[in-house]
Amino acid sequence: MCGIVGYIGNNDAASILISGLKKLEYRGYDSAGIAVHENSKIKIKKKKGKLDNLISEIESEIFSGKTGLGHTRWATHGKPSDSNSHPHDDYNGEIVIVHNGIIENFESLKKDLTAKGHQFKSDTDTEVVAHLISSNYEDDLKQAVEKSVQKLEGSFAMAVMAVDQDDRIIAVRKDSPLIIGIGENENFLASDIPAYLSRTNDFYILEDGELAEIRKDSIDIYSFSSGEKKEKIKTHIDWDAEMAEKQGYVHFMLKEINEQPEALKWLLQDRLKDGQIDLRDSNIDKKWLSKYSKIHIVACGTAYHSGLLAKYLYEELLQISVEVEVASEYRYRKPLADKSTLMIAVSQSGETADTLAALRLAKKKGADILAFTNSRDSSIARESDMVLYLNAGPEIAVASTKAYTNMVAAFYMLVLDGLRQKDDFSKKALKKLTDELIKLPELMRLVIDNTEEKIKKIAEKYAEKAHIFFIGRNTDYALALEGALKLKEISYIHSEAYPAGELKHGTLALVEEGVPVISIALRKRLFAKLFSNLKEVKSRGAETLLITSAGNSYDEDTVDEVVELPEVDDYFAGLLAVVPMQLLAYYTALICERDIDQPRNLAKSVTVE
Ligand code: F6R
User: Fold this and answer.
1) Is the minimum distance from the CB of 596 to ligand 1 under 6 angstroms?
2) CB neighbours of 302 closer than 8 A, spacing ≥ 6?
3) Ligand 1, atom nearest to 299 Cα
4) What is the pLDDT of residues 305-324, one digit of tens each?
5) Per the count of CB atoms within 10 A, which of 44, 294, 390, 435 is most buried?
6) Is residue 399 within 6 Å of ligand 1 at its C-beta?
7) DSSP string across 408-463
8) Could you tell me if the CB of 347 is within 6 A of ligand 1?
């Protein structure tokens, strides 16, 4: 999604804006631009394509301004082009704006403004807002923005400058993230914290309905509907800038795959007291299992896959009914959520628009909301009743890896907490499961070290394939979905996951000589069933890869390749099995020479519908 940066201080704004935009590249974008106050004008430079295009465009230019805005655009209204890129101005260059979100009523606003004589240079909704602010501007930029936002429908994070006021930037937020970095005699603005982590660890996180007037030595925050001034509390972020750097890895994705054992350890160590799970910090009721009669899990993409895996475990172990649904569907149906419902909203970024909307809907119906998120003070964290932070550290690659494993681990911790509340579940069995969970970070490290070379070889074969299928049953099906998503999103090879038993109801028609079928077979009680599905595809010429735990015996003629994982309770083996699938996606994409950290058309933080 679009990335916004802003700077006001005593230093060279252009280079600080570019460095901020670089840190936001992971969000996904198709054009970039900056605007800097220069000699009583606002100089705008923008370019379609990667940030490097913009950098080479401005290489020979001299910038001396100390106040400016920058933007990476992920096209929604109007195709990617130089003219549709941000920043936009009001034709005369008096008002300049960058925007993330969608203005739903921009067409009617544009019609009104056109009738008043305004002329437009782009197809974007954002340019219309620049004109709207310009039409409301006399000599007070804050007032003009305040007046204009009352007319906007949709979602926006925006930053605005006026040519005759180079001592301030006005920023507003509704349903799209925006943070202000607090410096000394300089302040920063960004869509996300990593943009300026190298310059400050203190931030104000703007909330919906807030407007900030940012000067180099002051930040004033107001409600943009009432105009009332607000006292904000600083958020201190203890990540360091290095955590958001590649640290010698070629790609963030590979770095993040390798960080998983550590990230998992951080998550567990905070919530393990005397060998028992302790979720007090999330604020969840000690007796939540009897408080709720059902659980609704909502999330998107990879986060949804973590929830699907949990559904199988929770219904099997806790005997509580669990519905899991992609948030974009949930939000537009009439779900049966009520006071007896616990909704678990799962989101790495904490800003995914559909997940936020699903959460709001369930809340309105009386459900209690528990968020699993990696982002402190994100919208989803703030609007939830309880939060379990994923503690995975900054995840920069678009394809989620370490956040996914910590989501699954968070579900594991919650299931153990639920089992603690069940009188018919023995303390001994609970202790055994907890001990298995504690072993996972170490075993995960072993899996990374022991499977990487083998996976590289398999990837060489797979990089030439047109279709790859994943099959599994039960929790292994949820894992298969994640394996297929990871592979398709970064290698662009068509890959699909099916419940193994479904193959013969249609998809088997696509299995022919040489088509890879990857089967995840961790659940011992379903191993034989899965294996018979594997035989079906093998007898039709498939190239088979079996991912299973040590101790499961199989007929070697049926499998071409095997990735054997260390033995662990099969409820938890998923966290080990996902690692070779992530590596397979990574190395296949590497051979295919894809843009691994920023796959085409995708964005890290999906803040629009
Ligand atoms: C895929 C991926 C996406 C996200 C999805 C939800 O690798 O990362 O499918 O999982 O966009 O994002 P969050 O978790 O930020 O809500």
Assistant:
1) no
2) 348, 399, 400, 403, 404, 407, 482, 485, 486
3) 16
4) 999 999 999 999 999 999 99
5) 390
6) yes
7) HHHHHHHHHHHHHT-TTS-HHHHHHHHHHHHHHHHHHHHHHHHHHHHHHHHHHHHT
8) yes
Tokens at residue 57, please? Answer: 């465009």
pLDDT tier at 2 (50, 70, 90 boundaries)?
A: confident
| Residue 294: Cβ within 10 Å count | 16
For 435-474, letters b (16+ CB in 10 Å) and e give: ebbeebbebbbebbeebbebbbebbebbbebeebbbbbbb
Res 239: pLDDT: 76
Nearest-angstrom CA–CA distance, 577 and 589? 19
Looking at residue 316, the DSSP 8-state letter turns out to be I
| Distance between CA atoms of residues 168 and 162, nearest Å | 8
pLDDT of the residue at 231: 93
Does the structure show a pLDDT above 80 at 243? no
Alpha-carbon gap, residue 248 to 259, rounded angstroms = 13
Choice between 57 and 338, residue whose per-residue pLDDT is larger: 338
Parallel, antiparallel or unpaired: strands 467-472 and 516-521: parallel
pLDDT digits (tens, 9 = 90+) for 350-399: 999 999 999 999 999 999 999 999 998 889 999 999 999 999 998 999 99
Per-residue pLDDT, averaged over 514-528, amounts to 95
Q: 586: closest CA among 333, 364, 389, 400?
A: 400
For atom 9 of ligand 1, which residue has the closest CA? Answer: 301
Instruction: Show the tokens assigned to 384.
Output: 């939830």
Question: Ligand 1: does its nearest atom lie under 6 Å from the Cβ of 381?
Answer: no
In the prediction, which pLDDT does 392 show?
A: 94
pLDDT at 77: 79
- Which residues are identified as catalytic? 2, 604
Strand order in the sheet with 467-472: 494-499, 467-472, 516-521, 543-549, 561-565
By most ligand atoms within 8 Å of CB, the mutation choice from 191, 257, 302 for ligand 1 is 302
Q: Which of 349, 379, 488 to mutate to test the pocket of ligand 1 (most atoms within 8 A of CB)?
A: 349
Q: What is the pLDDT of residue 29?
A: 83
pLDDT in tens, 139-176: 999 999 999 999 999 989 999 999 999 999 999 999 88
Structure token digits, residue 17: 């804006």
- Strands 494-499 and 467-472, by their bridges, are parallel
303 CB within 6 A, ligand 1: yes
